[in-house]
């Protein structure tokens, strides 16, 4: 089996970077890249990936531990198997092969046998582009906690916007699929009013979007691969629209305000520029996703009790941990009467809403299957990321999804207490699910009575009840009486037999008769407050 040469003998061109290794699990690396370019075929665990190496089987170069080996030109199953064996010998992080080779049964079996993760590269993807994107993700991972989604990529988009403006001699904007402006050219002096509004607001005005949608521009944009000309009309100047795509995925668009349709060579040059813009948008998305993953991992760690260096990235105290729920439901399941949550989609909705309301780095994570956030809680503070600000976010989401709610744990000022706030938020959410807590936004302080009762009920074993409730339950089951619900109604409406009777839908005289007959079954001193408390807790534990 071939082995890797010592690191010192490698050619510098083989390894794509010399940054300090900070590894990512292969599944996380592939997921961060997005765009349908890479897919994990066999996940064998193995070391985290910290660098990218172009494999050279003929020269015995198989990288080293933690490398992502790129099998450029490896197409035959026998060659792919040999590459996997060489990668296993040096404990590589994973091997990337073209789709046809990666999906071959012999190759997948070899990957599983030697314990090397196998990743497939989409047919439409360029090896050079994938190396560039992977390098960007790994470089961002190497930068540690200071990961940000903005920065050099956005700067490069502005440069590309200027390059496009020079091609068509017209002002340019680069936009995402939601018509949000990502970059624009420096020459905007001939822009029409709609373009000025777009630049100032960093988003295409709604009335302009509606007009373009009515003319079928967005429908064509989502389906087209080639630039097209949109004549002037309805108060808008003429436009050239350039779709930005990666394979079959629509990533955004380039817009130019022009006087007339540019010649064919210019349109072809714009199409070539769009391919470069697509790479930048993929890289920007991968960096944003990496930042989100890093933030979520840190938040999960601190909520699990790992508070080391947490003060360095958490916002100033005090804080609350909040369970966010109800923004996303599986409609097919809900129609059958259930209401399970898709935690990832739930989190996506809340993150989108938080970013729309200016929280640039929202502290959100999935913890034990629910979406959580950590917010500051200072009275009067309505800035993004605060508890009072979150009220507005919940109201916004509830306008679309009426079941959207926020359940908050207690306010804490020490990182070691964040786990307690999380557990309290979870308690409030469980009570909400059980119908014991109402309201769109609720804190544990608001729900103190329900929380206290729930904690007390948690220690009651209904199979081994002490006192008269067990006897009454046996009597109800044997004689089809309703003493348990009668006592519960009596306790909930002391001194008001009419209200108690209405609660269980009987006449007040029937209620009084049942209470008199109770003495034939058990002895109850309903004048003793301790007895009343114990009775009510046991009855609540039984569902009354």
UniProtKB/TrEMBL annotation:
InterPro entries: CdaR-like_regulators, PucR_C-HTH_dom, PucR_C-HTH_sf. Gene3D superfamilies: PucR C-terminal helix-turn-helix domain. Signal peptide: none annotated. Residues 483-541 form the PucR C-terminal helix-turn-helix domain. Residues 1-21 are annotated as: Disordered. It comes from the Bacteria. This is PucR family transcriptional regulator.
């Amino acid at each position: 089996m071939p082995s890797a040469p010592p690191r010192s003998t490698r050619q510098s061109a083989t390894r794509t970077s010399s940054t300090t290794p900070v590894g990512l699990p292969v599944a996380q690396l592939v997921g961060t890249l997005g765009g349908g370019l890479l897919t994990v075929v066999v996940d064998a665990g193995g070391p985290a990936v910290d660098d990218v190496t172009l494999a050279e089987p003929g020269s015995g170069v198989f990288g080293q531990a933690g490398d992502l080996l790129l099998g450029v030109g490896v197409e035959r199953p026998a060659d792919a198997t040999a590459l996997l064996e060489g990668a296993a010998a040096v404990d590589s992080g994973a091997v990337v092969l073209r789709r046809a080779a990666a999906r071959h049964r012999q190759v997948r079996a070899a990957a599983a046998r030697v314990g090397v993760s196998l990743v497939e590269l989409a047919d439409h993807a360029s090896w050079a582009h994938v190396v560039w994107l992977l390098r960007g993700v790994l470089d961002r991972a190497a930068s540690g906690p200071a990961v940000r989604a903005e920065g050099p990529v956005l700067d490069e988009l502005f440069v590309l916007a200027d390059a496009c403006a020079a091609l068509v001699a017209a002002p340019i904007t680069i936009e995402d699929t939601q018509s949000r402006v990502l970059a624009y050219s420096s020459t905007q002096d001939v822009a029409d009013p709609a373009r000025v509004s777009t630049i100032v607001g960093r988003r295409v005005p709604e009335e302009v979007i509606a007009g373009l949608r009515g003319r079928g521009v967005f429908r064509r944009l989502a389906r087209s691969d080639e630039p097209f000309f949109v004549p002037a009309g309805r108060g808008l100047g003429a436009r050239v629209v350039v779709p930005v795509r990666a394979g079959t995925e629509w990533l955004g668009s380039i817009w130019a305000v022009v006087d007339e349709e540019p010649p064919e060579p210019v349109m072809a040059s714009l199409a070539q520029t769009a391919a470069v813009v697509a790479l930048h948008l993929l890289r920007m998305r991968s960096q944003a996703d990496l930042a989100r993953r890093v933030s979520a991992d840190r938040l999960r760690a601190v909520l699990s009790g790992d508070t080391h260096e947490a003060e360095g990235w958490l916002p100033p105290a005090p804080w609350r941990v909040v369970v966010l729920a109800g923004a996303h439901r599986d409609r097919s399941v809900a129609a059958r009467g259930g209401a399970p949550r898709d935690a990832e989609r739930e989190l996506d909705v809340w993150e989108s809403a938080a970013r729309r309301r200016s929280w640039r780095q929202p502290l959100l994570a999935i913890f034990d299957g629910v979406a959580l956030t950590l917010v500051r809680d200072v009275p009067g503070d309505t800035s993004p990321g605060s508890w009072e600000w979150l009220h507005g976010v919940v109201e916004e989401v509830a306008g679309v999804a009426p079941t959207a709610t926020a359940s908050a744990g207690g306010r804490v000022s020490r990182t070691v207490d964040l786990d307690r706030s999380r557990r309290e938020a979870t308690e409030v959410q469980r009570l909400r699910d059980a119908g014991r807590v109402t309201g769109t936004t609720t804190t544990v302080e608001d729900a103190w009575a329900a929380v206290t009762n729930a904690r007390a009920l948690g220690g009651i074993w209904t199979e081994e009840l002490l006192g008269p409730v067990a006897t009454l339950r046996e009597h109800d089951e044997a004689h089809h009486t309703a003493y348990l619900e009668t006592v519960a109604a009596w306790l909930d409406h002391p001194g008001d037999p009419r209200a108690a009777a209405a609660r269980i839908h009987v006449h007040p005289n029937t209620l009084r008769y049942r209470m008199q007959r109770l003495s034939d079954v058990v002895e109850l001193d309903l004048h003793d407050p301790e007895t009343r408390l114990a009775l009510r807790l046991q009855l609540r534990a039984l569902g009354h």
